[in-house]
């Protein structure tokens, strides 16, 4: 194979994104998480935010771009996991998995951290905190807001 026939090197995060069921179109999101930023996909025509990357329901995908988000939201619903269904959660039970309604509108599924599981409540104000993962990804999780 000559130098002109070589494929460009794959982004270092793509293997982890694929392994955990992510979509390559969300790569800018994962890159930003590694830098401590939380992004959403936004329509440049109407301003509506989306997660994951998507097309605007009114304007399609032509004006979509990744934008910085507040990283703030509230618990919409949640469940407390008392069983470890995978080896990597064995030492974490009980833990909370929540649907977070972000201030910008979309819902985001995440863990609630830095909070006893029995203190989590619907409507609890949250803020994002980035957690490194052994896969190389940085995972947005949420904790109670201190305001």
UniProtKB/TrEMBL annotation:
InterPro entries: ChsH2_C, NA-bd_OB-fold, Thioester_dehydratase-like
SUPFAM superfamilies to which the protein is assigned, alphabetical: Nucleic acid-binding proteins
Annotated ranges, domain ChsH2 C-terminal OB-fold: 66-131
Protein name per UniProt: Nucleic acid-binding protein
Organism: Mangrovimicrobium sediminis
Taxonomy of the source species: Bacteria, Pseudomonadati, Pseudomonadota, Gammaproteobacteria, Cellvibrionales
